[in-house]
Amino acid sequence: MLILFSCSNTVTNDENDISYSINSIPKKITNSNNDFGFNLFRTINTSSVDSSIFISPISVSIALGMTMNGAAGETYDQMRDVLCHTGLEKDKINASYKALIEELYNLSEGVEFNLANSIWYRDDCVIKDDFRTFNVDNFQAKIEALDFSKEQESLDIINGWVEDQTNDKIKNLVEEISGLTVMFLVNAIYLKADWKYQFDEEETKEDYFTIKNGNTVICQMMSNRTKYDYYEDDNIQAIDIPYANENYSLTIILPKNIDQINSLVQDMSSDIFNDIVNNFDADTVNFYFPKLEIEYKKKLKSSLMSMGMILPFGGNADFSEMFENTSAFIKRVVQKSYLKINEEGTEAAAATMVEMWEKSGTGDEEELTFKVNKPFLMFIREKQSGTILFTGKIMEPVWEE
């Protein structure tokens, strides 16, 4: 079944005239990336209603953005529309990714941040000059030919690159290389940031966290009392936890009714999220949050196809802008991610791999309390551009010393 998704901020032709540069990314571009992220989050959640999710939507978007530079015709149109770039020409899409990457780096002083792209192709294939130029100039992609017949050697090179870019947090992203594999397009993202207001380890206590069936599990609950940006209505509490440089933050959205966690995911959009963060007010909050460490892996082909990206995965895919001498299609899209939250701050990483195969014929004075003791949503974002880097639904906190 094809699930329909909206990209609420379609870019008009007039906006194609905008020159994108650091600190001048149109809000519609940020919202387009975030719209794709929310659409992907909802799609994954339909088959993971009882499980935790942790993804980097911007990593998926960038990996597919590089891939889209090799697409043509309806294949290109489907990828562009699912990525919520409808109405933008290719050069403007590339320019928006370039400006976003530059802005994320420009605003990352005071945190450890890395975003890197690479393209690895079979050495008997010839990639087109425009495909190379678009991805080098706009995504700063490392592009290298490998002898895929030497499988282990190629795996070591690609996976070693991913480990280097993610501080060894993402390992074995690519597990095998088929005889039909002609290319891997890879994005890696890493963030390590201390809290602006760190938690005192001595205040961390065992506490109860309510899980999906109403039972409770023991978690390591951190706590502090300070002034945070806070929002509350009849259905949710929301809070924004700044990192040390204040450009990046962790936004938590907690449903008041535990049974509403999945409907909250299904309803979430750029407009709703922006309404929440735009209505934050600073207030003193007694804040409780469980320590977490999560490793997550997701195959994304079925999710992307249900969102409308169908042709790129089949024998009728048109990636004629990618190779001089090879017809290809997307075989799989896989993301692995990592999250650790403790008293000092947050460490998060993700890597997304697109594997191409050649075709073989197929404000109140009252003190507030915000206790995260049941399933919740989380978003790690860069606040000036509004870009959401990581998205999560946590059903049960896991922590091992």
Mean residue pLDDT? 90
- The best one-word shape is globular
**Count of helical stretches:** 9
CATH topology of the largest domain: Antithrombin, Chain I, domain 2
Terminal-residue CA separation: 43 Å
Beta-strand percentage range = 25-35%
Oligomer: single chain
Helix content: 25-40%
Let me know the number of strands: 15
Q: Using only CA atoms, what is the Rg?
A: 21 Å
Can you tell me the CATH superfamily of the largest domain? Antithrombin, subunit I, domain 2
Topology as a string of helices (H) and strands (E): HEHHHEHEHEEEEEHHEEHEEEEE
Low-confidence stretches: 9-24
Task: Please identify the top-level CATH class of the largest domain.
Answer: Alpha Beta
Q: What does this protein look like?
A:
The protein is of the alpha+beta class and 401 residues long. The strands form two sheets. Strands 1, 5, 6, 7, 8, 9, 13, 14 and 15 form a nine-stranded mixed β-sheet that branches. A six-stranded mixed β-sheet has the order 3-2-4-12-11-10, sandwiched between helices. The chain contains nine helices and 15 strands. It folds into two domains: 22-193 and 294-358, Antithrombin, Chain I, domain 2 (2-Layer Sandwich); 196-292 and 364-394, Alpha-1-antitrypsin, domain 1 (Roll). Residues 9-24 have low confidence and may be disordered. Helix 1 (27-46) crosses helix 7 and helix 4 runs parallel beside helix 5. The longest helix is centred in the first third of the chain and has 20 residues, at 27-46.
